[in-house]
Structure formats: structure tokens, C-alpha cells
## 1
Amino acid sequence: MAGALPMELCFAAARAVTPAGRAPPTPRKRRAAGAAVRCAATAPAPMGEKTEYRDGPLERAFMGLFARKMEKYATAKKKQPPELEKTTAKKAVWDWDYESFVDVSRRVMVGRTRAQQQEAVREVLLSMLPPGAPEQFKKLFPPTRWACEFNAALTVPFFHWLVGPSEVIEVEVDGVKQKSGVLIKKCRYLENSGCVGMCVNMCKIPTQDFFTNEFGLPLTMNPNFEDMSCEMIYGQVPPPLEEDPVSKQPCYPNLCSMSTPSAPVCPKLQ
């Protein structure tokens, strides 16, 4: 989720209306004060460097919503001064940033087994949905080629804030070529956490299980720890963790604050 071309997605929050009969205004270097523009991505940075993101209020709102749900399962922060605790308590959903979101994820891992971490993420995902949503999803999107390709197309714009720039790619599922793959060029979550265990336990496995078991639409995620890209394949049943190459992945000794450099496999995967 391979090197990528510079990419930037900008969404205009307001658009000037041109009166009938008039030619469109000449483009300017700066937009009018009333036209707010929100830019939410850039080109992925080389391995070892962090990509620069410019998150708007909508992206921050998504981060805040997820972080607030995950706080229920997170260990408490270190004691803060009263004035900082008040500020944190009053924080609106759009006041969160990605670093805070990753910090909550890291605190969910503390004191939990691999299975408990994955279950916590599952509960968070379910809490984000209205009652009966998984059953409705199964009716709307049975595991057909069309459903797989449709969900791949939706993943690119809707999960940009979470994983960074991505694109739909052609993959082979059960001998059939289809555009139900998504290539995440450099995963924002892995890049910011620098943690193999967080990638696998807090993203890969629970997301695979959620789509495959709750939604009935198989999904396999193949992270590449060499360049932090990741391939998502809708329609492909994921293998058991014991048979998955990620189960043998060592830590990022220079990136992860929880790493055990001497261990042949990331301890969080055991």
C-alpha cells in the first residue's frame, strides 16, 4: 500500500459562479479570499524520510473520529498539567492531527496480545457503522467482480487521508484479471508509526478480517516493508498469518520506538 510520480489532490471548497454571458475570469496565482482550497496529499518521500501532508478540516475530522473511538481501548497518557488536560478534553474532532491518531493506535497496543489488538480495531470499525450495516453491505456488494472493482475504486479517494496516495491496479484473482487491486504508494500509517507490529496488528489483519468476515468481501493486503508500499486485492481470500510472509518480518530498528533489533521477528507478531 514503488516510487511514485508527484501527486497532489486539491479539492475546492468553494467555486466562483460566472454570470451568464460573461467569459470565465482569467486564472490568477492566488484565489479570492472566499475560495478556500484544501490540499490533502503530496508525492511520497523516499524511504527513511516522511512524506509531507497538508490535511484539511475534513481529513482532521476523520482522524479525530477514529482517534476518539480508539481512546476507549488505549492506555492512559502520562500525567499532564491540568491546563493541558482541559485542552485535550475540549479538543474538537477537526483539531486532531495524524501524529495524535498514530499515538492513540500505539497506546492501544500496550498491554494487549496480538489477538486483543486486532479485536479492539474490529470493535472500533463496527462502532463507526450504523446498526445492520454489515448485512446491508453483503446485500449490496456480494463477492462479484463488479463489487471488488467498485470497492477498489472507492478506496483510492476515501482512504487517502489514512494511507496516502494510491491507485487502482489490475490484479489476478482465481486466474481472472480484474481491476480490483489498489497500490498504496507509501503507506502513511506505516511511515508515521515506523512499526511492523502496528502495520500488521492494527491495520492489515483487522482490515482483512473485517472485509472478509463482516462484509463477506474477501480482501488481502500485502505490505512491502522495503519501500512501505502496500497492495490491496479485493476478491482474494487472505492466508492465515502463519502462512503469510509478514509473520517473519523483523522490526524497523531505526524507526520504531518499540523495536527489538536483536529479535529475528518483530515481537508484536508473536
Note: Residues 23 and 241 are 60 Å apart (CA to CA).
## 2
Amino acid sequence: MAKNFAEELGLTSFKASEGWLGKFKQRHHINNGVLSRLYSSEVPQFETLAITVPKKHVFHVELNRPKQLNSITTLMWKELKDCFESLNDNSECRVILLSARGKHFTAGIDFNSLMQDSSKAEEYEDVARKAKILEKLITHCQDGITSLERCNKPILAVVHSACVGAGVDLITAADVRYCTKDAWFQVKEVDVGLAADVGTLQRLPKVVGNTSTVRELCFTARKFDSQEASELGLVSRVYSDQESAIKNVLETAVTIASKSPVAVQNTKKSLVYSQSRPNEVGLEHIKLINQAMLQSEDLKKAAIAQATKSTTEYENL
């Protein structure tokens, strides 16, 4: 864990933009030679996120503020929402790989941005009017995280080095999580005087299934490493470094992308819907979905492929 991590959080002023040439070079950066970047007019482009297509039907979303340790600003909250809504509607996209560029996965909320946004409430003396401003701000942040859960495409998150505060909110909204050996995690919010309010308190207990340990982590804000994250079930697998993690998780993404998008996307819908509901309600939900989906051509294609031990191509959804 970095000794001077607090100094890296970006509490001092950030450097100005490198301009269009710098952004162009950054956008077309090859990540350690692992992934080739395939661009098309269908790939959305953002300022704080880098979107590429390393394999057919697999879209790679990277947090892209490396000089600021990928700290999350007002703009990034918005772009996360816009990004995952866009990919949800993109029929070419079947699986999403989520990772980050730079030294750390994310340092969490950008405090400069947070203080600037929350200071707008100080323009009012009345508590109700202050609360309305803060409600809008919190909703804006929550929507950025929840967009991952609302996206029907499976999202595979790969964490390296630090994953702090809002980073934990972000990965718990993903479907599957992996990390590198040097990864460490921290539910940081109580250290900065607030209760986590964009998803960790709601999702982490369900992901881990151990409310005692989760409450300890949230009450103390202590750091925990990749080994403990694996033991808790927060991550599915730990890799030696980011390069091997991306390479292996990409293979998993390709496997998922080869399946029927009708089956995969409705599987996610049912899992998300049933997560906090009684079994009978979840069963009724998937029954209503499959009344229509069992009539899809994908079912016939899959049955033939299984019977003939062959592969098949599915239409985009």
C-alpha cells in the first residue's frame, strides 16, 4: 500500500488539459501491448473514460484520469451514466470489461469537485433548500453507479492497486470482480465525515454475504488487501499483475459474448431483480420474461449447436 497515498489523492490543483493532441494520443494508447484498439463510429467517446473494442462484441471501459489517480469528478459521474446507458442500447456490445489506466484503479471521490458542488448549498440559509441542492448532487452520483446495474450487459471489473471509497461503490455494482495481487480496498467514507451514499452500504453486504465483516470495514474504514477480498468473496480471482488480469478476463468476456445475448441479458435482468426480493417474486419475474423469450430463435440455434457439438452465431440484440 502506498505510504504517501493521501498526498496522491489530488487535493492540490490539477494540471490543465494537454489539449486535443494529448487526448488523441491517450485515447489510442496500447495498454502494455495486451489489447489492440478497434475503433468505429459506434464506440462512444468521453473525456474521463476511454472506450475501446478489443474483441468482437466486447467493449472495454477504462477510467481515464490517471494523473489524478482516476478520482471521480462531477463529469465522471455523468459520463459513467451516459457510457453504460449507451452501451446498454448498443446492439454490438454484449459484454463490458471495466478497468482503469494509471497507477491506481481509483482514489475515490475527487474532493475538489465534491467541495465545489456541495458549496452551492451554502448559498441558502434555509435547511430545506440546502437539502434540495444536496439531494440533487447525491442522486447525480448514485445514478452514475447504478447505471452499471441497470445495464443489461454483463460487466467484468478488474481492479489494480488502490480501490478507495467510491471505487468500492463502483465495483459492487458490476457483475463480476477480479483484482491484482497488489490491489487493496477501503470503504473510506467515515474517515471524511460521511456515510457512504452511492451504493456500498446497500450492495457490499449482498456481494460478500458477511454482514459482520462488512460493518467492521464500513465503521473503521480500514484497508484490506487482495487476499482478504478473495476470502470474503468480493473478487472471483486474484492475478499477479494487471496485464495478466486483463488478458485472462478478456478470455472470459469472449466466452460470454459467444453465448446467446437473449439468454445472457435476461439472466442478468433476473439476477439483479431477484437479488433483494423473495424467491417467489423472482420466479414470477423470470416466468413473465421467458413467456416471450422462449420463442426466440436463439433457443433453437443453441439446441442445434448443443446437439451437433458445433458453434453458432447469434444476431445482435
Note: Residues 188 and 194 are 9 Å apart (CA to CA).
## 3
Amino acid sequence: MAASFRCVLVLFVIFLSALNVATAATCSDCFIPSRAAYYPNSDEKGTESGACGYGTFGATINGGDVSAASDLYRDGVGCGACYQVRCSDSTYCSDKGVTVVITDQGSGPSTDFILSRRAFGRMAQTTDAAASLLALGVVDIEYRRVSCSYPSKNITIKIDENSNYPHYLAFALWYQQGNSDITAVQLCETKNLNCKLLSRSYGAVWTTTSPPSGSLSLRMLFSNDVTGDETWVVPVNNIPDNWKAGDTYDTGVQVNA
């Protein structure tokens, strides 16, 4: 009987261990412990020179609730991803925390996030508590990835100011909803559908030194690390044949996954 009991007990422990591993691997809503700091300047919002290549958009998107990330930057793939971040001290911190958009790369002492001052303070319960958080400078937090939401906005193509028609084209993609990543982009001629795979220059900026001629169509590959799903999305609207540096073009499509 003792040997049988030990056998059952071992099997039960193995079952619980396997269950815990499976739960950890599939738990997309679980919070992960870390630490966060904030940009060491007086600007309440983000930086206009962030490593994602968003420019002024990166400072003002989401009302200025933005952040730099270290490992979560993921060589630029993480640009535009949204995270719920909440600090851990119940004396100062709210249960909801703040939702931030990754617009830059950066790290501090054992931190995953460097938030804008605005976002850092919004983790607090009150204005006075926000001042106390800012005085601390670095705080313990927990975070999880959440879906981005931009009501009444489609994914938008922003042509980089360094683009040179028709020889060099660079652009970033704005207002991407959901919690998937854009992992590949193709640029196609609309007339004959010849396509070329673009290079990620840095951050969220995609480039080509010899763009196809005429009106151009994009194909964007959305990848979800949690579900493993990959989906190509083709915008409704094209980039016009006379595209200009600095212009923005509404793709006519949005994603939610």
C-alpha cells in the first residue's frame, strides 16, 4: 500500500507541475513583476527622438502615456505595443495603473520600462501620491500586454522626411490596434502586383532603396506570439504614385487581434 500511495503521489505532483507549466505558457493576462523609471527631463510626455522612429507622434500618441522599453523593444518589433503597467506600493499606487505605448528603447537599473513623467504619475491614486512616486524615481511594478485601441483611426502610413521620390522610400505605420506585431511588410505595384519584401531599417521604420513605380500597395504580416497566428493584411487604400516625404496616408484598414 505504501508503495502504491507513493506512486500515486508522484503522479499527482507531476500532473500539478505540468499544469503549472502549461498555465504559465498560455497565460496572456498574467502580470509580470519588474521595475520602472521615468524620463529624466521636465517634459511631461515622451521624446520626439525615440528609437522607434515615430518622431513627434511618439511623444503625443495615447495622450503622452508612452514608454521606452529594454528587452520588450525586441529590435523594433515591440514598437507600438501596449502594456498595462501598475506600481506595487498600495500606499501610492492604483489597481488600474496606466496603459502605455512603446515608442522608444531604453533601460535603467533593473527596469523594463522608462515611462514618460505623465504616465509614471498616472500609476498613482492621487496627485499627491503621484508626486511621491516621482520623488522615488524608480519603483517596483507589474505589467502585462494589452490590446491597443485607437477609436476612429485606421492604420496610417507616415512617409519619413528622409524619403526621396522616386529613389528611396521609408515609412512608419501608426495607430496599430490589437496585440499582434507587424513582423514583415511587402510593397507591391498595383498594376502587375510585383512585390518586394522590405527591410526594417530600425524601430518601426521600413525602407527600400528602389521602390516600385506607380501606385503602391502594402501587405503587412501580423504575428501573435500568444496564439501563434500569422495573418497578411492588405490595406484598402494605396500609396499614391506621387507620394511625398512627410505625408501621411490612411490605409483604410484596422486590426483588433
Note: The longest strand covers residues 181-189.
## 4
Amino acid sequence: MSNIVIVFDFDKTIIDCDSDNWLIDELGFTDLFNHLLPTMPWNSVMDRMMMEFHSHGITIQEIEKVLHRVPIHPRIIPAIKSAYALGCDLRIVSDANMFYIETILKHLGIKECFSEINSNPGYVNQEGRVRISPYHDFNKTSHGCTNPCPPNMCKGLIIDRIQNTVSEVDNKRFIYLGDGAGDYCPILRFRERDFVMPRKNFPVWDLICKDPSLVKAEIHGWSDGQEFEQVLMKLINKIMIEENAKFISTDCMLQSLSTSTPVFEFETLPKALSVRP
């Protein structure tokens, strides 16, 4: 096990769409969804849509088949499998829901790569209908965050909990990947020794561009699945080399290393991206 914790958003990060919109559009309920959306919170709308699916005779199996077809860049799965094989601790923090995420990850064969999934509760009840509820019950109390977080989830608070459960002795270093406005709050939680990977020209990127100095971690943007894989693997290599170097004394390095036989061979990681408005 390495000392690297990688936290992924799900929609438009691991998969290349919004899973709610994908399911609604594919099943032909877009007009009803657009009619209901202004009248209630997002999670309530999605729970209502699940009731509509059920009342129209759409089965769980049919819903799963639609979720199995979500678009995903072909390099995303190899990147996740490689990070897992290198001993990284992979986690998900997403404003989708557990039913979608677990259904899709199982189909892709990568669910076991993740040690933890944090998302809105989603499950199949005894009637065979999917129920969806908010991660944070904002009807009872606010999560209190002043960043652009939705009322049902502050990802920053989830990251606080994850960081607090990691022993300082373990010297963990974080990489965070996301695209949405809700990913801005957790990005502010990371330190200089950590890395964040915002998706370029998406809401989180725009928020960072307003004042990049607020982000302490190194910023490395990405545009698509190929760049997702390239940047992620370079950051993992960079951390591993830096951490391994701490355990090698100068004398040992002089005795065992030669210029003709390097211990590590990898493409040099470019400097952290300069983010400007």
C-alpha cells in the first residue's frame, strides 16, 4: 500500500456525462423532468422520477441496462486499475447516488478498486423501485458551508472527515479529481504537498481561475480521458519517487546508482499549470 489517497468525483470525471440526465434522456422522460425541476430540490425530483419510471413499468433491469451504456473515455478504466495496482487508496465523493455509482462500477469491473464511496443514498426498495435521498438532510439543518456547495452535500466536510481518519504518521498525500462547482470546496482543503486535478473549462476550473492563490495544492488540469490518465500516472510517479528518496541516504545513492542505469524511468512531469482567469 502506497501513501497516496486519490479522491474522484464521478459524473463528468470518471464517466463522461451527468448520470441523472443520461438516465432521464435515454428513458424518454426529459419533458417531465424539466417540468418538475423548478418545483422541488434535485434529489426530490430524482426520487419522483424513479417513481414515474416504476409506474410506467420500467424495471430495475432496464434502468441498469441504460446505466451500463453511460459514455466513458477508454483510458479511464486503465488509469483507475493502474492506480489501484500501485497500491493507491482510491475513493469516490460524488453528488450522484449510490445506486448509479455501484451499478456502473460493477459493470465496468472496477468497484473493488475503491475503498470508500460517498454519495447520496440510492437503493431498491421492497416494491422494486429505486429510492433516492440527500446525503445531508437539509430539511432538518444546513451543513453550514458558505462555498458553492449544493444544500444536500458539502464535499469539503467529507474531505475533512477523510483527512481526519488518516494518521499523520502514515504521511498520506492526496490527489483530487473533479469538474463541478461542488468540487471547489474540497479542493480548498488540500495542502501544498497535495495535488488537485480540475477538469479544464468546467465549473470548478472557472472558480479556481477567479483566484488561484486560494488553492494551496498544486493544480494540474485535464481535458479528456487520455489527459486524465497521463496526468494522474505522472503525479503518482512523482509522489512515489519523492517518498522513496526520503529513505535512501546520500551514501547509498552514490554506491548503488549510476547515470547509465536509472532506478526510475518516466516522462518528466510538467510544472503545475498556471491558472489565469
Note: The CA atoms of residues 2 and 86 lie 7 Å apart.
